Amino acid sequence: RQHESPRRVKRAWVIPPISVSENHKRIPHLLVQIKSDKQQPGGVIYSIKGPGVDEEPLGIFSIDKFTGKVFLNAMLDREENDRFRLKAFALDLGGVTLEDPTDLEIIVVDQNDNRPLFQQDVFTGHVVEGAEPGTCVMTVDATDADDPDTDNAALRYSILEQGAGMFSINTTTGEICTAQPGLDRETVGVYNLTVQAADMSGDGLTTTAKAVIYLEDINDNPPEFTKEEFSMEVEEQAAGVDVGKVFVHDKDLAGSPNWLAKFTILEGDPEGAFTIRTDPYTNDGIISVAKPRDHEVRDRFELTVSVQNERPLEPTAPASPRALATVRVRVRDVNEAPIFRENPRRVSVLEGAPPGTTVTTYTASDPDTHQLQTITYALLYDPADWLQLDPRTGTVRTKRELLHPSAFLQGGWYIALVLARDDAEPPLSATGTLSIEIQEVNDHAPLLQPPASVLCGRPGRGGSLLLGATDDDRPPHGAPFHFQLSPQHPQLARNWSITRFNVTHAVLAVLVELPEGPYSLPLLLRDSGTPPQERQQLLNISVCHCGRDGTCEDGVLAAATAGASITLGALMIILGMLAGLGVAWARGRRRALRKGLLRCSQDDMRDNILNYDEQGGGEEDQDAYDINQLRHPELFLSRAKPPMRRDTPLSDATPLAPRKLPSSPSDIEEFINEGLEAADSDPSVPPYDTALIYDYEGSGSVASPLSSIISSLTDEDQDYDYLSEWGPRFQRLADLYG
């Protein structure tokens, strides 16, 4: 029994695959009836599960649960599902499985229900013109959704329309190639083909697409001139202007190197007066003037111009019959400006030349030799108004004497501008530069520098003096200078000698020891000009007493060189005034201390001292005490604001703490006030706050010493008792002097 059961399953329960055609329209359609061998008295219940039943897509298949018949309930599409795998079940009425589930496979049989589809609607390809037959251009391809293992998807390609039949297509692969020679872009530049794909090996469903083939250009057409001769004209003296165009035609692709023309002037222009370039937009040749042409020299040109492409021609291209053209250019005459053949004109005039001296004749020429014109001249620039010009002849003469030095000379040259104008319509003019060199004349003799000096009267060290000279003349009429003692006084050579130091200086030396005192030496100075100029000059020398080191002693040197010192009497007055001021200030201070003006707290002694630390003076010191209080005390007793001296710096500030004069001035205070008043009224005295500089007058003095003024103020006359009132800081001084 165990062996019989598998045989029964194999015989009745195993179901072979079931085939059904897609697009079956008779619905429902019986596919198969399944049956279990294990029949029960109450019957068997059949069921199926899987895609198309209880899985997507739902409702395609169904089964009669009592008979086991399987039905197709909807049309099938093989392109969506090419087979269905189901499970079949057999149960008793109680739901107990009678058989193991068995497989039910339903195969959808393909029908030719899909047309071929091209991958794109338009296919594009390129091939050079003149390509050999068999040159492949592109491949078109299509697909078919039907079963690839059947003829339903067997595709075949063909060309339906192509015009001249220049291309062929591989029926199996769809590759398009050239079929005939003679592809010419200039004749047909683009080919439009209609290609077809058909299934069932070409007998089934069909579809079409476009194939566009572009022919790529090659340089198989040379450029050609549109005519053999061209004529144009240009004005003379024009440069950098376009004269005209020569026109060409090229069948090749516009804008490509096969089309772009290149021009060359072969003959008729040996000087290179003309150039030709290509217009990149029109491909025409543009002729321009590179060098100005002169109508009077040559008025016509005949040029031979050639044309070719930037890219070389193909070997198979034919030669051009119009690769050369003749261009005739006429030079048109116009009015030209006069020309100064020598510009600038350089001439020379002697310094000091009298008015009316002819400088030069500066003329211009008219290049218009075929026209009768008159040229007139005028001075355009004459900054010093030195010149006059003949308007007809161009002769330049001096109007006044030309002298050195002058602000209008630049390195000895005078620059003027001359204007030449013709009488054409409209008139044209030219400017010429006239450079006049004012040649130096030796009209100045050297001048001794310095004319006075001091030296020791002892030969050797200190007994020499360096002499120099200046000359207003410019080279070569200046240095080197020649120094010598006056030949009219030969006796000078016994005491003095002059030797050359360099081109501008010489050394004067003492030959014998000379007594102190002033000396006047006549010297003869001569320059190196042509002719040389010489001058006899006096050298004032103060021979001083020599020190040990060969220099003048201080007193003698100061006396000899003092030029700004004050008189001895004025110096005595000033010194007396200064001494009197010092005494008055000292006495006023002692009196103030004795009256207790400085008494204050012992805890802060610094302020008491700083109150009298008032220096003042100087033009920048606006807060110092005004000395006018000493000059005019009566004014300060009656006014609140002190008067200003005329040389006092302007200021609105009032002194912070003016000193008050004693109530009964002493004799020295009166003397000081009188002296100050006299000095204030003297305009030659410097301002009161000006630092005075005195020359040193040497040691010793013939005047009496000024110490007698304060001889009465000895240490014995001083009273230092007030020091004990200044606190502990001054106790030591009080013990020493109190």
Automatic annotation (TrEMBL):
InterPro entries: Cadherin, Cadherin-like_dom, Cadherin-like_sf, Cadherin_CS, Cadherin_Y-type_LIR, Catenin-bd_sf
Span list, region Disordered: 642-665
Entry keywords, A to Z: Calcium, Cell adhesion, Cell membrane, Cleavage on pair of basic residues, Glycoprotein, Membrane, Metal-binding, Repeat, Signal, Transmembrane, Transmembrane helix
Record Pfam families: CADH_Y-type_LIR, Cadherin
Name assigned to this protein: Cadherin-15
Biological process, per Gene Ontology: adherens junction organization; calcium-dependent cell-cell adhesion via plasma membrane cell adhesion molecules; cell migration; cell morphogenesis; cell-cell adhesion mediated by cadherin; cell-cell junction assembly; homophilic cell adhesion via plasma membrane adhesion molecules
Role summary: Cadherins are calcium-dependent cell adhesion proteins. They preferentially interact with themselves in a homophilic manner in connecting cells; cadherins may thus contribute to the sorting of heterogeneous cell types. M-cadherin is part of the myogenic program and may provide a trigger for terminal muscle differentiation.
GO MF entry, a single one: beta-catenin binding
Transmembrane segments: 556-585
Compartments where found: Cell membrane
Keyword Zinc-finger in annotation: no
Primary localisation category: membrane
The organism of origin for this protein: Geococcyx californianus (Greater roadrunner)
Domain Cadherin: start-end pairs: 12-118, 119-225, 235-340, 341-448, 467-557
GO cellular component, one term: catenin complex
Membrane topology annotation: Single-pass type I membrane protein
